[in-house]
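Internal tracking record. Fields below are filled automatically when a chain is submitted to the structure queue. Please do not edit lines marked as system-generated. If the sequence contains nonstandard residues, flag them in the REMARKS field before resubmitting.
Queue: standard
Priority: normal
Entity type: single polypeptide chain
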Amino acid sequence: MITLAARIYWRIIRDIKRIVKLRFKGVNLFILGGYGLEIYKDVDTFCFKVNEFSRLVPHIPQARALYESYSYSLSGKVAPAKFDSAEELAVFLYAYIVEFKPRVVIETGVANGISTNIIMSALEQCNGVLHSFDINPKCESVYNGSGNWDFHLLKKNYAKNLESKTRDLKNVDLWIHDSDHSYSWQKFEYSIASKLLAPNSGLLVSDDIDTTTAFGKFSLEKKQKAWAIFDTRKFFAFTKLGS
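SYSTEM-GENERATED OUTPUT FOLLOWS
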């Protein structure tokens, strides 16, 4: 007869085996860690353990409430729901912006506008501006608030277009990648971001870093500390450039 303790033990062994095999799209958990990323299970745990970001904790409850509201009202309105921002990324962005008050923010990938509205809800409190880029003209309708939001439609040669439209945006405080998650595009976008982010303070945030090895290699190349947080079915990560 198998005791309760034995059952618990074998369940733990089973879960460990699942984690070892776990692949989030293209890159497994141990490859992410091999690039030096500190990995956390959620935003709350990250903020409690990393002193530099502990100031975000008081903003988390409001961020989760806003995410629930925007997810309910916006999911599937412009693009399929599978393109919605997941909760942990949205919570981190809101808390970070409210606390650190970035003045210039760039977001690539709008979709249904959940993250856009979360970001704008935070920026409205600190008079910052958000520049959002997407290839879908319908995305222009996702935000109807009174904040400072500029939507930029990318056409034809998307890479050249993005580079051209962002060229004059100097000292960007926060760059959020959530568009094309292929290796070549991520590498390209991280390169642009690194040139435009404010020295010593600019934060690069990337969703879906488990899709390719681009973010891990980028953080190693820049020799910057980077953190990754599990987000329902994927990981997002961030690094402060020039720190």
